[in-house]
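Tip: read the tokens left to right.
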């Protein structure tokens, strides 16, 4: 990231005018509002405090799980949809560890990205791990401090959505790529009372929730049976708040080297949507 590239994405969260870089680590608008940029290379523009998002421990568990490759085919499918647009700008909203954004940018060398999450630990991890990426801590439920039309593609993987703001931030005719779980996702774990259910009509609710601004352009279902160790299951279902995630991440790395450890079948099932922004 550079202060210049970071500021190019942004608008002032108070007056919505453009933000300009002020060396060494600040951005300011013409009305005199100013914001510090973190030394770790991202900016926090939250209007209200209190929402925290995923902790560093939760991200470590997710990173270890994703790093084992269990969702690699999903990452490839997401990357194909994004790469087919040849975007120059990608905004990942709810970026988490940056796993999907990293896959995309590897395959789209001309693109730059903005990684957005409400969790500072998530944004920090993503800008550290993914090249050509600036970082923004912001709340998707507030007006986003991102300029109109800044994104050729918005990526939104298992994360909250704001249809009106996504439509504003996406350029006309841009693509919104959304991943949601299907009802059979983690079926065995749900039957064992270890995972929450997925709403039966989640896809229909997604489509109708976006319909004012977006039309379905493509959709692809991906299902697989994966064989997971107990620690991998803990990391997978334990991505919510818990004190034990760091040890979950450590256990997971140990299991990866142990061929004798028991494994259990788990269904994974996702749907990858491309939504075209409607012209207004
Ligand atoms: C289930 S995780 C998915 C992360 C990543 N896309 C992935 O699939 O690995 C959801 C992400 O959304 C973020 N999030 C939750 N509420 C949010 C909000 N109101 N605004 C922005 N991000 C939010 C969380 O911090 C978390 O990183
Ligand atoms: Zn301002």
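Filled-in amino acids:
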């Amino acid at each position: 990231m550079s202060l210049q590239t970071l500021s190019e994405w942004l608008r002032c969260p108070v007056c919505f005018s453009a933000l300009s870089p002020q060396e060494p680590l600040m951005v300011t608008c013409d009305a005199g509002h100013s914001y510090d940029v973190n030394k770790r290379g991202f900016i926090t523009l939250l209007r209200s405090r209190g929402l925290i998002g995923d902790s560093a421990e939760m991200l470590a568990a997710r990173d270890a799980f994703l790093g084992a490759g269990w969702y690699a085919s999903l990452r490839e499918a997401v990357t194909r949809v994004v790469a087919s647009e040849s975007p120059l700008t990608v905004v990942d909203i709810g970026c988490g560890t940056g796993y999907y954004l990293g896959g995309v940018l590897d395959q789209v060398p001309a693109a730059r990205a903005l990684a957005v999450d409400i969790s500072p630990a998530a944004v920090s991890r993503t800008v550290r791990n993914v090249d050509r990426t600036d970082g923004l801590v912001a709340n998707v439920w507030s007006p986003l401090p991102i300029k109109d039309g800044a994104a050729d593609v918005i990526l939104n993987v298992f994360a909250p959505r704001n249809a009106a703001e996504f439509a504003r931030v996406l350029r006309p005719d841009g693509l919104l790529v959304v991943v949601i779980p299907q009802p059979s996702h983690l079926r065995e774990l749900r039957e064992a009372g270890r995972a929450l259910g997925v709403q039966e009509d989640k896809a229909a609710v997604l489509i109708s929730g976006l319909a004012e601004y977006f039309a379905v352009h493509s959709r692809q279902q991906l299902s697989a049976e994966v064989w997971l160790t107990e620690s991998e299951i803990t990391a997978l279902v334990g991505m919510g708040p818990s004190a034990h995630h760091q040890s979950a991440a450590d256990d997971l790395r140990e299991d990866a080297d142990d061929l004798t450890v028991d494994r259990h079948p788990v269904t994974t099932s996702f749907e990858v949507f491309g939504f075209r922004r409607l012209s207004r």
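Residues 51, 53-54, 62, 94-97, 99-100, 117-119, 122, 139-141, 157-160 surround S-adenosylmethionine (ligand 1) (CB under 6 Å). The mean pLDDT is 91.
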